[in-house]
Structure formats: structure tokens, C-alpha cells
Amino acid sequence: MNYFKKILRFAAPYRRYGALNIFFNILYALFSALSFAALIPMLDVLFKPEQKVYAKPIYQGFGKLKDYLQDYINYQVTEYSGDDDMKGLVLVISLVLALFLLKNLFNYLAMYFITFLRNGVLKDIRNKMYHKIVDLPIFFFSEKRKGDVIARITSDVLEIQHSFLSILELIVREPLTIFFTILVMFGISTKLTLFVFIFIPIAGMIISRIGKSLKRKSDRVQKEQGEFLSIVEETLGGLRVVKAFNAESKFYNTFKSSTERFFKFSNSLLNRQNLASPTGEFLGILVIGVLLWFGGKMVLVDQTLDASSFIAYMGLAYNILTPAKAISKASYGVKKGNAAAERVLEILEAENPIKDVENAVDKSDFNTGIALKNISFKYEDDYVLKGFDLEVKKGQTVALVGQSGSGKSTVANLVTRFYDVNQGEIQIDGINIKDISKRSLRGLMGLVTQDSILFNDTVKNNIALGKEQASLDEIIAAAKVANAHAFIMELPHGYDTNIGDSGNKLSGGQKQRLSIARAVLKNPPIMILDEATSALDTESERLVQDALEKMMRNRTSLVIAHRLSTIQNADSIVVLSKGKIVEQGTHEELMKSKKGYKKLVEMQSFTA
């Protein structure tokens, strides 16, 4: 129930729809009871035509309300029909039809208004989840598979709508239907109604025992759904590799194993859930059977109840079954919804350790430089950087080189504050980056990575990602700097061409030049290039390198380089090994020292 309260907070903006739903549900519940009670005068007209009432009855207090209402309806029927019994029958049938029509009209209106609340909550939860997903730090998702996150924002949120939010319809309607029905039943026969109450708690206990394990079973189903969605996502992302290595059968078997487990878990869950309806119905019919025996005895033997009242009473007793079954089904929904809500709230309530401090500085300019002062950082247990110092002055190009795992990309991740340092501090113009708002910090930086991250959109929109209001002239100018304009104009629709999922309609060099154009258009004072040319062929590399050199003019650049030929003109080259600086200087200085850097250059020259 704790999860239910947390989810219910999302219903606050739609409370007017909830209020209208409650209002019409109250009317529905009232008319549901009255529509069955109205059968009594109809049955009296059919089976007791001799019991006509010619004198207008007098109200004698609440204790005799039932007799007063029955006599009043009989009096109206007698007045209307005179000696023609068929006229009276038509009148009573019209009354019953009108009551049933109103009951169903109010039911529709109640469902009409709750639809806006349910779908509104669904929309808001998804929006908040997506906002949280893009806000959470990168390392949060390194521990979770993408498919599992997708499952949470799709099927788990939908499960909340089907389970928790469907309960909102039942909270008022079903209990009130039962309440009004029982009131009318008491009005017809107190003795018979008290007899019914002996059996209701017994039936409730049996039904509640069935649903105890539903949350655990539902949790397994939802986790397994996340598992096979992850497999699908990975397969689509790496389809070329899968086909190239003839690994289709391996991935198929992995997926098949996951869906097999999902099949077993789902069967177990649904079979337990499906047990609720037949069990509830059988117990209800059992109560009806006992009622027929006990009530029949009151009509035939004791003669303390008339036949028309008893038939209407049986209709009312059956009228309790539907809401009672709905309430028992809703209790299963809560247990299933609990598992889904737990997974959704795990994302929504996740703490973001990388957040702005109070009164964070909004920095829009860059004046002196970047300083990494005695920083230490670890992803898990072992430090990747330990006691690391580096200074990048304004206007300088500083290149980081070294073997894989030496900590080059980690420096870029820390400067952009994708991760926070464990010790030490990073400063921009003498201000600790933790004191600068994340938005303004990243606004000072442009990033070009080894993997060109493009989106399933037009060329124009991909370039304009960091500057949404950019004009077409600005976009074209940025593309020209990135040596991308020529190939863009050869595309079917030029700048309005959709480049497909992850830009798969383009070559590697074309994708990288679009990434550079995006960074150029943003026009940041600090540029971070993370192995921007390492995945390219020689011709593409020349075009991209030329674009990078144009882009880096008059900017402060931090370059993480794999191909050393691309950074020979850097103001300072920093050689890293196991998270520490082992050499630093210009290309010429480091070549003269004949240490690690010279060996790396010679090895690349030899392999080239």
C-alpha cells in the first residue's frame, strides 16, 4: 500500500476528474440498488393484482419506510391503471427500465472521467521517468541493462495503470454498490441479510489466501521481460557482428531460454490470478444456494417474507457478487502492481550524486584555463587516476596519449562532470566545477567522441542538437568547417535527409564530420576530442583531421589521441601510464627524450 500512496501523488493534477468519477459512481451505486428494488412492485402487479392500494399511504417513520415506499408505488400504479392491469404493468416496467438506463448512464460517465485521470497519470509517470533517466549519471546505467530500463518505462508503467489505477474506479463504486444494496436488503429482510453476513468473511478469507504470492511471481515476470528486451536491444545494436560470426543460433538460444522462463513465470502468475474469478463465483453461488434454502423456508414455511420481495432480494444478493469479485480481483491487482511500482519507483527515487550545489555559479565565459589538482578517481575498487595534476591554459591544445586503460578517457569524463572525483578538485578559471551548475559547465564544452552518436532524425536536426534555434545558414557554415557540406548536398534531400537509426545511412567518416559540425555550431570555448579519428580510414581521417584543426583554432582543446600523427602540433602532449603522467612536452621535446612517447610513435609508424 505504501507504493500505492506514492503512485497516487501523480493523480493530484487530475483530481477534478477523480471527483466527477466519485460523484457519478455514487449515483451508479444508488441506482444499481434501486433498479433491483423496483422489481418488487412489478412482480406485485403480475402476481398480486388483488393487492391494489386506493388510499394514499401515510409516512409513519423510518422504521416503516419499506412498507411506505411499496404502498406508495402500488397506490400510483392503481391510480394510473384504474381497471386496466396492463397499463399498470407498462408503468412499472417503464420505471424499471428508466432506473436501469440511469444506472448504466452514470456508469459510463464515471468511466469517462476516470479515463482522463488514468491516462494522465500514465503520461506523467512516463515523462518523469524519462526526465529522471536523462538526469541520472552515466554510471547508474552501467549497472542496468537498457532493455530492463525500457521494460520499466513501458510494461511496468502500463501494469501500474491496469492494477493501481483501476482500483481508483473500485474504491468508491464497488463498496458503495455493496453498501446501498445491503441497505435495501436490510429493508426487505433483516433476518435474511444477517444470515448472508455469516458467509461473506469465510469467502473473503479463502480468496485472500490465493493472492499472497502474486507480488513475488509478478516481480519475476517483469524482470524476465526486461531480460529478453535487453537481448533484443543488444542484437539489433550488434546485428553485423552477430551475422559476421554466424552467431545467430547462439543469440537465438539465449533469447529462447529467456522467453521459456518468461513463459513458465507468466503461466504460474496468470493461473494463480485466474483462480480468483472461478473461486469467487463458486463461493458466491454457494451463498446464493444457501439463501435460496433459507429464504425459501421463510416464504413457503414461515410465511414471514412474500414471494415478490424474495425474488427481488435474490437479484440484490446476486448484485453484490459482481462488485465483490471486482474487489477481490483488485486486491490481486495491488499485489501485481506493487512489483511494477517498486521497479518504477526505483528509477524515480534514485539519488543523483552528481547534482548542483545550492546557489551554483552560472558560468558563461572562459578566461584563464582548466586545472586538475591532485585528483584521484576509481570506477569501482581500484584507482584509475591517483594524485593526478594537469593544467590546460586558455588557447592551448593539450593531448593525452597512452595505452588503453591508462586513464585518458577518464580525464574527459571528469572534466565534463559525467563522474565526480573521489579526491582533489577540477577548476575552471579557479572555480571548482562542483560549484558551477552542470548546465553552464557543459555549455562551455563541445564533445566529439570516438563513436559518433547520431540520432534517427534529419541531418539539420542532428547538427543543431546543441543550438536548437540555429538558422540554416549557421548550420551550413558549421558543416563547411567540418568538411561535411559537400557530401550532405549529395544526399537525397540535402540537410532534410533522415540519416536512420544511429546514422546508419552514412559512412563512419561522414558520421564523424556531422559530430564535428554539431560541436562547431555550438561554438564552445573548450573542446574535448575523445579519440575522434581512431575508427576512420586514412582518407576519412584526413578530412576529419582537417575539420578538427579548423574547429580547434582559437579554442582551448583537450585531445585524447590514439593515432599520434594527429596531435603532433599540440602545445603540450601528456603521456599517461596506469593513471599517472610519465612524460610531458611538445612532440619535438618528447621525440628527443627517446622514452615512452618515442616508442609509441615508432610502433605506430611501423604498423602503418
TrEMBL record:
Which residues constitute the signal peptide according to the record? none
The protein's matches in SMART domains, at most eight in alphabetical order, are given as: AAA (SM00382)
By its UniProt entry, which Gene3D superfamilies does this protein fall under? ABC transporter type 1, transmembrane domain, P-loop containing nucleotide triphosphate hydrolases
Q: Where is the ABC transmembrane type-1 domain?
A: 19-336
Q: Which GO terms describe its molecular function?
A: ABC-type oligopeptide transporter activity; ATP binding; ATP hydrolysis activity
Per the record, the major location class is membrane
Q: Which GO terms describe its cellular component?
A: plasma membrane
Keyword Transmembrane helix applies: yes
What Pfam families does the entry give?
A: ABC_membrane, ABC_tran
Which PANTHER family is this protein grouped with? ATP-BINDING CASSETTE SUB-FAMILY B MEMBER 10, MITOCHONDRIAL, ATP-DEPENDENT PERMEASE MDL1, MITOCHONDRIAL
Where in or outside the cell? Cell membrane
The record's section on InterPro entries has:
AAA+_ATPase, ABC1_TM_dom, ABC1_TM_sf, ABC_transporter-like_ATP-bd, ABC_transporter-like_CS, P-loop_NTPase, Type_1_exporter
Membrane topology, as annotated, equals:
Multi-pass membrane protein
> Mind telling me which PROSITE patterns this protein's record contains?
ABC_TM1F, ABC_TRANSPORTER_1, ABC_TRANSPORTER_2
Q: Which residues form the ABC transporter domain?
A: 370-603
Instruction: Give the keywords, sorted.
Output: ATP-binding, Membrane, Nucleotide-binding, Transmembrane, Transmembrane helix
Q: What is this protein called?
A: ATP-binding cassette domain-containing protein
